[in-house]
Amino acid sequence: MLNTKLLPDTTENIELAAKLIAEGKLVAFPTETVYGLGADALNAEAVGKVYAAKGRPSDNPMIVHIASREDFVRLTPYITEDMEKMMDAFWPGPLTMIVPRKPMIPDTTTGGLDTVGIRMPDHLVALELIAKSGCPIAAPSANLSGKPSPTVAQHVVDDLDGRVDAIICSNDCQVGIESTVIDMTGERPMILRPGIITKQDVEAVLGKVVLVDPTLNQRPEERGDAEFAPKSPGMKYKHYAPNAPMLVFEGDPDDVRAAIIEEKILREERGEKVVALLFDGTDQRTAAQKFFAQLREADKADADVILAAAMPEEGIGFSVMNRMLKSAGYNIKKV
Fold first, then answer.
1. Could you tell me if 108 and 178 lie in one domain?
2. pLDDT in tens, 311-334
3. pTM (predicted TM-score)
4. DSSP states of 178-208 as a string?
5. Domain containing 46: what range?
6. Distances from the Cα of 195 to the Cαs of 31, 59, 179, in angstroms?
7. Which among 14, 60, 265, 316 is placed 20 to 30 Å from 335, CA to CA?
8. CATH number at residue 132
């Protein structure tokens, strides 16, 4: 068991954390999306420690975080006009591009793929950590594999204290869900993981139709449960799961709210502890920011069940529903 250092986000502590990264150690750090668990992306042994600390399957590729465009040039053999447009519009920010990788990036970081996901986070602490470490940082979310992503420093402490070398404790994450992941290697860009940067946002920048992976938000019965090699983190069916079973209610918003209230009363009469998630479908950004935190609050409250209202699957709502459906293991009730 490691003696995890809990580091307030001072300049001195960021320098200490950067030194740890350069030495092949593990540091959890804040970004605008969720907290990440970082290791030197070019050090296969260090990245292997990330898989071990999280209990993460080794076929699940990691996103490489950079602090400058010069870093991007170092990691991919060529940069297209569309990639330039995406960098101009969305970096630093919650967008990951899947691009061809250079051989310097080890298979451990890419899950054995010949591509790599790269992003430049929009967070001063993260950017300073990357720059001072002198290396790109591979960083999945800083949680135990399969658990809700951490958006508050305490979430990271709850999951990884004793498993990592240091945790930089900073402010709560402002976006709250992971970055949009877009594959830039095909004839047309394709979104593999939705985030707050939407298909419409990307199309407006590129001036062309952007594809969306047809399996996103698709129910398992619609495609079967065959195993597949994910090109992006978060593509497995069961992900982001709270301790309690979760049931998602779909239908007319008024009918959904009434059904959740009725279900809550029935279950509480049986002595169950019920947590209800009723996000305002018109305030999608707040839903994105609060979703994972509310799942963790339900865990702390020892909930027996979580009842959640589905959101409209458009814009950011599509991205929130992607997480909600995976959190519930696609346990859906139509009303």
1. yes
2. 999 999 999 999 999 999 999 999
3. 0.93
4. PPEEEE-SSSS-EEEE--SS-HHHHHHHHTS
5. 5-206
6. 14, 22, 5
7. 316
8. 3.90.870.10
